[in-house]
Every structure is written in structure tokens, then in C-alpha cells.
Design brief:
2 domains
């Protein structure tokens, strides 16, 4: 087991660290340990930024701004996810039918169809 230490950070550094933790879905303590480990492994050269590659998930700022209500959700988020996904799938289907030549529209719809299987959605019925 490791030793516990206390460090004091300036407000700006703490805010940056907190923001980085939210962006990467990583614990602030983990980010500090990761940066320190890399710093020491490099022989004390400038510490690189912690890499978010561990999670493989990157939240765009526009979407992250909408996560507040879901982080405070008191029910089963999986039910809400399925409902919202079905709404998005219906919207993508209608958009692909109305504007089939728009770049990327059919690919978005096809991608959503493929993702639906992870939520138990889809039975290969064509409309």
C-alpha cells in the first residue's frame, strides 16, 4: 500500500486539474499520481499532460454541458438512455429519408442502427 500525502495547489491549477478530470472521467488523485509517475520515469524532466486514452471516451464540450441533469438523476438512467436513443434513431431515420444525399446522414443512421443492438433495439424489420 502506498503512502498518503497532502499537497496544496493554486486555484488555477486545481481548476485545470478538476476540468481535466471531468473531461477524461478520471479521478483527480489518479491524474496527479499519473503525472508524478511520468515525471519521475522521465528522470525529472517536464511532466507531460496525463493522457485520457485510458478511458477511450471523449466527451465533446457541447455534450458535456448537458450532463448535469443526468449526473443528478434519481432513477434508472438506462431506461432514459433507451428512450432518448429511440428518439434519436427516429429522427435519424426521418432525416435520412428526407435528405438521403446529404453527406454523412445515411452513415449516422446506419451507425445508430448498429449501436441499437447494445440497448436491445432492433429486430431487422424494414420500414
Amino acid at each position: 500500500m502506498g503512502k498518503r500525502i497532502t499537497i496544496r495547489l493554486g486555484d488555477d491549477d486545481y481548476e485545470k486539474l478538476q476540468k481535466r478530470g471531468l473531461e477524461t472521467s478520471l479521478d483527480i488523485s489518479f491524474l496527479v499520481r499519473e503525472a508524478l509517475s511520468k515525471y519521475l520515469a522521465d528522470g525529472g524532466t517536464a511532466a507531460p499532460e496525463p493522457t485520457p486514452a485510458r478511458t477511450g471516451l471523449f466527451m465533446p464540450d457541447q455534450a458535456f454541458a448537458l450532463t448535469g441533469p443526468y449526473r443528478a438523476w434519481s432513477g434508472d438512467l438506462r431506461v432514459e438512455l433507451r428512450k432518448r436513443f429511440l428518439d434519436l434513431l427516429a429522427l435519424a431515420h426521418s432525416t435520412a429519408q428526407t435528405w438521403p444525399r446529404s453527406p454523412g446522414i445515411r452513415e449516422v443512421y446506419a451507425g445508430l442502427l448498429a449501436l441499437g443492438q447494445h440497448l436491445g433495439i432492433g429486430n431487422n424489420v424494414r420500414h
